[in-house]
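Comment thread on ticket #2218

A.B. wrote:
> Attaching the input chain for the structure job we discussed in standup.
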Amino acid sequence: MTRQPTDVPIIGVPNPDDGDDTDRREFIEAMSTQISHVLEDPGSVWANYKVTSQPTMVFVSADGSTEVHTGGLGPQGLLERLKAL
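C.D. wrote:
> Ran it. Output below, let me know if you need it in another format.
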């Protein structure tokens, strides 16, 4: 069975330096994306994966290994990366 990109969960984590939780919730609502977002312990996820700016994507494979990509991928680039997981 071939894994489809829709089989891969995508979770957004807003910038912990962008105001308080209310500001981050407003940002999430304004983005109107269909992905889940979490408000995290300020900065812990970003620090753990050494995220320094947006957009940054952290790809976590089934074996737990990670790859951090800073910058945009575009729809095709993201699709290709998700298929590679």
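A.B. wrote:
> Thanks. Noting for the ticket: The beta strands are 11-12, 36-37, 56-60, 66-70.
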